[in-house]
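Subject: Interface between my chains keeps coming out wrong

I've been trying for a while to get a sensible model of this assembly. When I model each chain on its own everything looks fine, but I need the whole thing in one frame so I can look at the contacts. Pasting all components below, labels as-is. Any help appreciated, I'm running out of ideas.
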Amino acid sequence: METFNYSVIKSGMIKSSQYPEFNWDGTTSADTNFLQSLYEKMKVEYPKYYKMNELCQSGVLSALLSLPKNYEVDYDPDKLGLIVQNNSSSLVSDFPYSKEYYCTREKIYQPKPSLFTYTLPNILIGEICIKQKLLGENFFFISEEFDLEPILDEVRFLFETGVLEGCLIGWAEVNPDNINNFFFFLTPDSFNNHQLGEQINQLYFH
Amino acid sequence: MENLLNNLKQQIIDQINLVGLTPESIDNDSPIFNEGLGLDSIDALEIVVLLEQHYGILVNNPEDLSDHFVSIRTLAEFIEKNQVSAVS
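Reply #2:
Try treating it as a single job with all components included. I did that and got this:
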């Protein structure tokens, strides 16, 4: 039994430990835009959502599905942290950006500012922190693959030193054809569970 | 007018890169900025570019547009009155 909240958003699957009403196994609908469907089902109503790229949209939804229901009351916002990893950084926006930037003899065509804004991966943690009011430490790591140990070490240190009281952690890998997000929320008590690392890896890899 | 409204919505979606929105999902009379579509001052400049590119409307002082930047409908009415030629 897990001792932490978690969510999985993949192309073809949605799973949330605390919002099972949004779980989806991909077989009940032929909806090609399942992220938009999830946004509507969750009744988020955050106009800025539509300006975000797919990395940020899916990350914001993953955060909503993973944060404890009363986190704004139960935790000091200055002690809520966010750590996210992925493999392909912000390539989901970098490629369209580079495609739009080209020169002819007459003119230099520059990409739209709305596209440029999302050509850094840490915009994802910015969007989540602004929306959810997570005001503590935050990091974005680029990693070959989901790498739990260094993150758990960092979070344990931040808990032991009193810097954080809660931390949302995520793997957010998004490309034009696929989404693979896995987010979970840890507190100092989570580390009392001696199988914590095994349980997290089990949820991610299976 | 209906065609202009739909074209304008699609052009705004493309210009500002509004991921997941369709013209049908945008209300003609909802606010464009802050609540509603949630656009900001940088997006306003993008719309100014759009007005020039698609409708041949040159805007020297974007602040003069504030009364027309209320909703899709007010923007379309402004285009109808000031359109030089349909560029695209």
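Reply #3:
Confirming on my end. The first helix of chain A runs from residue 34 to 41.
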